[in-house]
Amino acid sequence: MDSIRVVIAGATGRMGQEAVKLVQREENMILAGAVSRSRIGEDVGESVGIGSVGIALTDSLEDALVQSRPDVLVDFTTPEVVYRNTELAIQYGVRPVVGATGLSQGEIHELEAMCWDRGIGGVIAPNFAIGAVLMMNFASRAAKYLPHVEIIEMHHDRKLDAPSGTALKTAELISREREEMKQGQPDEKETLEGARGGYKDGFRVHSVRLPGLVAHQEVLFGGPGQLLTLRHDSMNRESFMPGVKLAAEKVMTLDHLVYGLEKILDE
Ligand code: NAP
Fold it and tell me: What are the binding positions for NAD(+) in this chain (predicted)?
């Protein structure tokens, strides 16, 4: 297979920098362009600390798409620009691999329709950590047989939302597999507000925020005489890159857009 030509939007951000390093080190990928708001004109390799790679940062995604004619756009920007970037890529027949979060359901449906019209593949994944996606999958399977469950997610203390998107998604998958059932002692009283965590269809979701943490989650299932614990830890942003690579390869063979990394894991 020919090498996959990749443009990265948000290339100077924390995730974008990892994506630049990924594309540079993978033999089947070529960095075709790098888009950013800052450090325009600078060699992107210099700005991510891997030495010159011969690609200058530009602030125009359209110029990058027109000039470098990539196969794939990897987007790790922000909720404000991700929709427009993805739409633009599809208009140019460039397959989107979207990691930036914040797209609404409506926007995702519109982007799906655009990919259908163009007959091109795309992946939007709120979590590119393959281990986290597997954890959600296993949790959903376990909930069928061990319906008593609690989720504890742990993140760095700069995180704005609680619970995390991954915890919410895990909770939704679990809810699909079990009847709504209030767990614990029916007469339970909280003597400290919030001590039992957030309530989701009868079970509890707890959020821990501390410096030193990155992104971690445990799903605990309890049954008579047994406890099953699923745990996933993202130690750093590199943990997301195998998922990005998988998606960039997969979009080359798809003719439509998929939402969620789990959709391409077993295909
Ligand atoms: P970040 O460090 O703030 O990087 C954001 C990037 O977007 C930077 O390159 C920034 O440019 C650029 N940007 C910001 N506003 C822009 C605008 N108005 N126009 C054009 N470019 C703009 O954020 P991050 O931690 O890398 O996260 C990026 C996104 O990925 C977020 O949505 C985050 O939730 C998501 N994320 C996804 C996953 C996943 O697995 N899918 C994992 C982690 C994070 P400057 O550098 O010039 O400011």
Answer: 10-15, 99-101, 125-128
Average confidence (pLDDT) over 49-73: 97
Backbone φ and ψ for 64, nearest 5 degrees, come out as: -65, -40
Q: Structurally, what CATH architecture does the domain formed by 4-124+238-265 represent?
A: 3-Layer(aba) Sandwich (3.40)
Average pLDDT, the chain: 95
The atom of ligand 1 lying closest to the CA of 78 is 32
Give the contacts of 104 (CB within 8 A, at least 6 positions apart).
Answer: none
The CATH class for the domain spanning 130-235 reads alpha beta
User: Where do the structural domains in the chain lie, given as residue ranges?
Assistant: 4-124+238-265, 130-235
How far does residue 142's CA lie from ligand 1's centre (Å)?
A: 34
List, chain by chain if needed, residues with CB within 6 Å of any ligand 1 atom: 10, 12-16, 36-38, 76-78, 80-81, 99-102, 125-128, 240
Task: Say which DSSP state 239 is in.
Answer: G
Q: Is the pTM of this model over 0.90?
A: no
